[in-house]
Amino acid sequence: MKTFRFVDFLVYIKSKILYSRILQVTEQLRDFSLRDQTRRAALSIILNVAEGSAKRSDKEFSRFLQISLGSVNELYACLDVMRSNNFISEENFDKLRPECEDIARQLGGLTKKLRFNS
Q: Which of 4, 19, 60, 86 is the most interior residue, by most CB within 10 Å?
């Protein structure tokens, strides 16, 4: 078994890309609590996939994927708040939304796959 198997997961790779984009989009944000919460939510997606992949059972791993999915929803809510307050452009929001949706779908699919393997 590979020691760090998560590095090959597409959802992990895409989550890292999304995190980099979130860092860029929030760089000039003056609402520091919103900026920090948005960054933490994006990072949490990555870290829970990684941590969960090290668990001994698919049931445990699935729980961490659910936490990651919650973080995607939290991230999307942060982006929506930023858009509503004109902290980010509609264009940036429209670029990030499909990335969040894609990661949410991948997390859901991986969770289902783990359930069927159990």
A: 19
Q: What is the pTM of this model?
A: 0.93
**What does each of the 118 residues of the chain score in pLDDT, given as a tens digit?**
578 999 999 999 999 999 999 999 999 999 999 999 999 999 999 999 999 999 989 899 999 999 999 999 999 999 999 999 999 999 999 999 999 999 999 999 998 888 776 5
Buried b (16+ CB within 10 A) or exposed e, 21-30: ebeebbeebe
d(CA 39, CA 22): 7
Instruction: Tally the C-alpha atoms within 13 A of residue 25's C-alpha that lie toward its C-beta.
Output: 27
Distance CA 91, CA 45 (A): 23
Place of tokens 């699919």: 109
Q: How buried is 4 (Cβ within 10 angstroms: 0-12 exposed, 13-18 middle, 19+ buried)?
A: exposed
Computed over its alpha carbons, how large is the radius of gyration of the chain? 15
